[in-house]
Amino acid sequence: MLRLGFIALLTVLTAASFGAAFPQPALRKGCSLFKYKFLVPHEMKAMQKMKKHFEDTMLLSDRKCNTRLFHRKWNPAELSVPDRVMLVEAELDLVTAMLGLPADPSFTETRQRPLAFLSQAREDLRGCMATAAPSHQPSGKLRHWLQKLQTAKKTETTGCLEASAIIHIFQVLDDLRCAAFQEQCI
Questions:
Q1: How far is residue 182's CA from residue 26's CA, in Å, rounded to a whole number?
Q2: Which of 82, 125, 160, 162 might form a disulfide with 89, Cβ 3.0–4.6 angstroms?
Q3: Which residue has the higher pLDDT, 11 or 143?
Q4: CA-to-CA distance for 49 and 43, rounded, in angstroms?
Q5: Name one GO biological process term (predicted).
Q6: What would the pLDDT profile of 53-65 be if each residue is shown by its tens digit?
Q7: What pTM does this model have?
């Protein structure tokens, strides 16, 4: 009986030493982005319902924007992991700000679940950046896009920014999924 206890203890200690021998990727340490690799179906349905409701009630004039924020010539998979996280954090800042705007009561109700989910994702991303790469400088591609975003916030109408953010919500979710991967994503 004592021998079985010793073998179990030896097994646990060996497993622990193997875990230490194979360190986790940088963003996983103290970071919970892995939960965004595969989104839960009810979250996706809530996003679809919100987007459809918005598109059904949106005025045609709100669709016209001078800045095409979500039309990029590059793919987030081309960015480093810290750049991907910065990109998604900026996208989520925009989306959550737009979803937080006053709206008619039916849309306010429809957007509550997506807003809560996206706000939590944004907070998780901020935590990851603080622990993984607090002084990271964005690449040229990302820096250019961030400047374009700042310009759009100053020059575009709120309706334009809201429409862009909601219409491209699934692109933001794909970018979030991409940021959750430690290696290259598809």
A1: 8
A2: 125
A3: 143
A4: 10
A5: positive regulation of immune response
A6: 988 887 655 566 7
A7: 0.77
